Amino acid sequence: MMKLLLCGKGGCGKSTVTALLAQSIAAKGCNVLVMDSNRSSFGLHRQLGLELPEDFLSFLKSLNPFSKKQEHGKEFEAKFKFFEPFWQLSDIPELYITRKGSLGLVSVGKFNVFEKNCALPAPKLFISFLSKLKTGTKDFVLVDTEAIVEPFGGGLEQGCDLILMVLDHSYESIRLSEKVANLCEKAGKKIYYIFNKVDGSNRTAMLGAIGKERVLSVIPPNEKLFQAGLVGREFDVFLPEIEGVASSLISGKFHFSY
């Protein structure tokens, strides 16, 4: 049905919202694949109650072993023909995906050791794959991104149908939301906001600064969720704010619950 890109500054709770949305959408009868492309984060798989799968980038690189010279040349910028025709979720080898019911996880590599230019060429491979990945009528793909906006410039957003930006109550989040909104407008992509760890006067201030038109939900601080995230335990929390967003995504009719 849809490929979603979740973005936001570091510490806003982007991975937390990704995990909660994935669990909620899967519980409503959809097939959900979480693609963890945040290469410096190591907690998402535990929040989902899944083992960390093998590095998916290793698999992608094995399909097209460019030389270093080719990786940085014009040939590398072209669309990779080895992802044609389009891929489906069922085409991903079992070694590179962990599952629990209708919920699956793919990890797009993690920074475990120092490697010069370690961010290249991996993002290009993943971007190409994502653009060729097709979803069925009951399929959702949630892409958890790095805590930066550079992926937009590289074309990551082009492989997704909708952008969800997670914001906390900070000046940095507000300013970053403006930049990402401009980037989405240029890319022709819709963007909606989810406020996280926001309540009371912070909620009022954030709505005043951002505006209400694109805010899908406002999630207040939750102690049970905080404790689970702190010790790396699977989330088992019911949040009506998340349930509302999940229902909107499935139906395609967006209800703004702020």
What does this structure look like?
The chain contains eleven helices and eight strands. By secondary structure, the chain is of the alpha/beta class. It has one domain: 3-Layer(aba) Sandwich (Rossmann fold), CATH 3.40.50. It has an eight-stranded mixed sheet with strand order 3-4-2-5-1-6-7-8, with helices on both faces. β3 and β4 form a beta hairpin. α1 crosses α11. It is globular and about 50 Å long.
Structural class by sheet pairing and helices: alpha/beta
Ends distance: 25 Å
What is the count of β-strands?
8
The helix-strand sequence is: EHEHHHHEEHEHEHEHEHH
Which structural traits does this protein have?
alpha/beta, Rossmann fold, globular
Which helices and strands appear, and what pairs or packs with what?
Elements: E1 2-7, H1 14-27, E2 31-36, H2 44-47, H3 56-63, H4 68-71, H5 74-77, E3 98-100, E4 103-107, H6 122-132, E5 139-144, H7 150-154, E6 162-167, H8 171-187, E7 190-196, H9 200-210, E8 215-219, H10 223-231, H11 240-251
Parallel strand pairs: 1-5, 1-6, 2-4, 2-5, 6-7, 7-8
Antiparallel strand pairs: 3-4
Helix pairs in contact: 1-11
Short description:
The chain is an alpha/beta fold.
